[in-house]
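Sequence in, structure out.
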Amino acid sequence: MPHHAPSAPILYSFSNPEELVDALSHFIVKAQKEAVEKRGKFTVAISGGSLPQFLNGLIGKPGVKWDKWQVFYADERVVPLDHPDSNHKLCMDKLFSKVPIPPDNIHTIDYSLKDDLEDLSDAYEKELIHEFANKDSARFPIFDLILLGVGPDGHTASLFPNHPLLSEEDRWVAYIEDSPKEPPERITLTYPVINHASRVAFVATGAGKADTLKTVLDEPEAGLPASRVRPITPGQVFWFVDDAAASKVEYPRTKM
């Protein structure tokens, strides 16, 4: 089997968050259109943190076929679905409660399994298997789009620096009991899943992310978790950032 090399990231930088939101929503609709034309649906995984607030450009945007979306969470905190720490609640509050997406198209964790994280992550993996099982019998699911943020420490999804999960090669969904950020118990998609996606888009804004972004893009050999998101060809990784976050980056920017 040929070994596919990862393709280099594409960096888009915007002078203000409004421009970024507009460009990101345009990018997402384009990805959706291609996916629906190919397979009749759009599979997307979304992280939490500050990311969901940048998706509000999709509300009322023409061309969004909400009934074709199948939404998973790139990571999720093991808390009730209506808890302030829940990524699902965050995405519901910022986006899904404001658009006509069928509730069954949003795949959440089964919080009733909270006392056994192995069972909980296995159950979530089964949701993915159910969605992706017939897709070219691939070893890993191939998401049309995965949307991620990046923390000041360079973590993404719930993949944290120097954590054993960074070397997970088999599982689709893994759990973490010792997240350095509260809450400590989470599940996350693993690198094999993230790096098999057709597209991965990061969103990062603000001067507080400048040093992290410089390390991720200019010094990938430092091995920060976000640097290791390098989808194998033909997959592609995109960075949507504002000029403040990109202020120290030497990596070349691309015009949209």
